[in-house]
Amino acid sequence: MSLPKPVMRGLLGKRLRFHLPIAFTLSVIAAVAFKYAVTEPRKQAYADFYKQYDAMKEFSAMREAGVFESVRPSGE
Amino acid sequence: MIRTRRGKFGTCVIRDSAHVASSVPDELVHVDVLDCSVPQYNNRLDTPLPDVPFVRNLGADQKKLKEKEKGAWTSLSKEEKLALYRLSFELTYPEMKRGSGEWKTVLGGIFFFLGFTGLLVWWQRFSVFGDVPHTLSPEWVEQQTQRMLDMRVNPVHGFSTKWDYEKKQWK
């Protein structure tokens, strides 16, 4: 019957001191990973698309297909 | 006290009162009313030592055993030790914790009612719902898809990127 007295205080503080740096680091890593895996490729894809985008050509194609109400296809 | 009764479905057996095993000592089991003003025995996992022993009114042999218990316990045989245990307790911990087959009933009931609900849903489909809208017919969907491609829906990452505009077919 000579067990040491268990720790009674500072339990939350100890847990936070251990877990908060880990949580913070993992969150930062998650944010950085998302930025470089998702948003940068997406921005690049949009940039590439619009670099080669001929607006007039696309407009004429859509006009011929008949989707506009303000301009009808050139045949009519 | 066990009586028999002739009923519609043959003879059946009725007891005077239910067996209240978990809270009342053996001798009081077949009484209709529980006396809650005196300490009671209970089989509970969180109460290892109930207020009273299971068997209160000892028979002659049991009294002799209790006298022998007052001496050195090494002189007790294994059967005597077990008998003393059963005098104080009705169920052991493993007996208290034993599983039942209830899960089979629960699972069966779940499946049964899922099936019944399926039948209801099926009946609802052909008896309650009206016709499917005409905008879901294959012809309409075809014209709709063509119009979406003409409008260049989601041209960067999405719908229109799957269509080859030169060859006029899906990529």
From TrEMBL, chain A:
Quaternary structure annotation from Swiss-Prot or TrEMBL: Component of the cytochrome c oxidase (complex IV, CIV), a multisubunit enzyme composed of 14 subunits. The complex is composed of a catalytic core of 3 subunits MT-CO1, MT-CO2 and MT-CO3, encoded in the mitochondrial DNA, and 11 supernumerary subunits COX4I, COX5A, COX5B, COX6A, COX6B, COX6C, COX7A, COX7B, COX7C, COX8 and NDUFA4, which are encoded in the nuclear genome.
Membrane topology: Single-pass membrane protein
Gene: LOC114801142
Family to which the UniProt record says this protein belongs: Belongs to the cytochrome c oxidase subunit 6c family.
Protein name in the entry: Cytochrome c oxidase subunit 6C
Record keywords: Membrane, Mitochondrion, Mitochondrion inner membrane, Transmembrane, Transmembrane helix
Chief location of this protein within or outside the cell: mitochondrion
Gene3D superfamilies: Mitochondrial cytochrome c oxidase subunit VIc/VIIs
CDD domains named among the record's database cross-references: CcO_VIc
The species this protein was found in: Denticeps clupeoides
Compartments it resides in: Mitochondrion inner membrane
GO BP annotation list: mitochondrial electron transport, cytochrome c to oxygen
Transmembrane segments: 20-38
GO cellular component, one term: respiratory chain complex IV
The protein's role, per its UniProt record: Component of the cytochrome c oxidase, the last enzyme in the mitochondrial electron transport chain which drives oxidative phosphorylation. The respiratory chain contains 3 multisubunit complexes succinate dehydrogenase (complex II, CII), ubiquinol-cytochrome c oxidoreductase (cytochrome b-c1 complex, complex III, CIII) and cytochrome c oxidase (complex IV, CIV), that cooperate to transfer electrons derived from NADH and succinate to molecular oxygen, creating an electrochemical gradient over the inner membrane that drives transmembrane transport and the ATP synthase.
Pfam families linked: COX6C
Entry-linked SUPFAM superfamilies: Mitochondrial cytochrome c oxidase subunit VIc
Signal peptide as annotated in the record: none
Pathway recorded for this protein: Energy metabolism; oxidative phosphorylation
Automatic annotation (TrEMBL), chain B:
SUPFAM superfamilies assigned: Mitochondrial cytochrome c oxidase subunit IV (SSF81406)
Pathway participation: Energy metabolism; oxidative phosphorylation
Main subcellular location: mitochondrion
Transmembrane as UniProt keyword: yes
Pfam family, one: COX4
Gene Ontology CC terms: mitochondrial inner membrane; respiratory chain complex IV
Domain of life: Eukaryota
Membrane-topology descriptor: Single-pass membrane protein
Compartment(s) where it occurs, according to its Swiss-Prot or TrEMBL record: Mitochondrion inner membrane
Transmembrane helix as UniProt keyword: yes
Annotated CDD domains: Cyt_c_Oxidase_IV
Keywords from the UniProt entry: Membrane, Mitochondrion, Mitochondrion inner membrane, Transmembrane, Transmembrane helix
GO biological process: mitochondrial electron transport, cytochrome c to oxygen
Positions of transmembrane segments: 105-123
Family according to the record: Belongs to the cytochrome c oxidase IV family.
Oligomer status and interactors: Component of the cytochrome c oxidase (complex IV, CIV), a multisubunit enzyme composed of 14 subunits.
Primary role: Component of the cytochrome c oxidase, the last enzyme in the mitochondrial electron transport chain which drives oxidative phosphorylation.
Protein name in the entry: Cytochrome c oxidase subunit 4
